[in-house]
Specification:
Structural class: mainly beta
Order of helices and strands: EEEEEEEE
Number of helices: 0
CATH topology: Jelly Rolls
CATH class: Mainly Beta
Number of strands: 8
Helix content: under 10%
């Protein structure tokens, strides 16, 4: 996992958060603050199965047991984009993971690298 954050406009608190290997190990509290997610892109080009990108509003994520607030289904070897008009607020901590099962369950990560980018403000 290589996570990077790029500030787009400090006046509005907008930034891009990127993770070059999103998997079953949750990336937790990536902003250290509350805010909203406006855009998500998941590139599962190196995978051979359907993946599920899960967003959580909690810092202590137990992948497979913690209920996500948002799930995006990403077919194998594709890139999926999601624009969230008006933003999706997170009030505790923004965390995410990618696994091969939808819903709450699932602890098996993708077969290959899954690259994720989020545009957030907060």
């Amino acid at each position: 996992m290589a996570i990077s954050t790029t500030v787009l406009d400090a006046r509005f608190g907008t930034k891009i958060v990127s993770d070059t290997d999103t998997d079953e190990t949750a990336t937790v509290d990536i902003t250290g603050a509350t805010g909203s997610v406006y855009y998500v892109q998941i590139a599962a080009g190196a995978t051979d199965a359907t993946n599920y990108f899960k967003i959580y509003d909690i810092g202590g994520v137990a992948v497979g047991n913690t209920d996500p607030i948002f799930v995006i289904k990403v077919p194998a070897s594709t890139t999926k984009e999601c624009i969230i008009s008006g933003g999706m607020p997170f009030t505790t901590a923004l965390s995410f993971a990618t696994v091969t099962a939808g819903g709450t369950g699932g602890t098996t990560g993708p077969s290959g690298a899954t690259v994720t980018a989020l545009i957030i403000a907060g």
